[in-house]
Design a protein that fits this description.
Blueprint: E1 2-5, H1 15-18, H2 20-26, H3 49-70, E2 76-82, E3 84-86, E4 89-91, H4 94-103, E5 107-117, E6 124-133
Length: 136
């Protein structure tokens, strides 16, 4: 009936790099997981920004399709996500999630956004709560 998620924020972290010690302790190979990581910061460095955004959107549509398939009719997807920041430019996450959600068959019921103080060069980013629904 519901999916509650906070997917990786685009271009904010290299999430797997943050998990290297945990993976080593578990005896897992980090290299085999690098290509499956959603929107790592390294995908957006330098001239890779546009390619990183394109890949992030493809990955996002993929997980939204899976959420849609898992939901019962009338089921809802709650998403908490913040904007990314690369090369002194923000990466909006609200509009793309709404668009990609609609593309896979989800309807926007509502959203709320607020500012988030950040220590980095993009000192003011937005975070969003988005509610989508699979039509009954």
């Amino acid at each position: 009936g519901a999916v509650l998620t906070s997917p990786p924020y685009p271009a904010v972290y290299d999430y797997l790099r943050l998990q290297e010690l945990r993976l080593a302790w578990l005896g897992l190979d980090l290299g085999k997981r690098d290509s499956a990581e959603i929107s790592p910061r390294r995908d957006f460095v330098g001239p890779e920004r546009e390619r990183g955004i394109k890949r992030w959107r493809e990955d996002q549509r993929s997980w939204l399709k899976k959420a849609h398939a898992a939901l019962l009719p009338g089921g809802r997807v709650f998403v908490v996500i913040g904007d990314g920041w690369v090369a002194s430019k923000p990466i909006d996450t609200l509009v793309p999630i709404v668009e990609d959600g609609q593309r896979v068959g989800l309807t926007l019921l509502g959203s709320a956004s607020g500012g988030r103080l950040d220590e980095g060069p993009g000192a003011h980013r937005r975070e969003h709560v988005i509610l989508l629904e699979k039509p009954a």
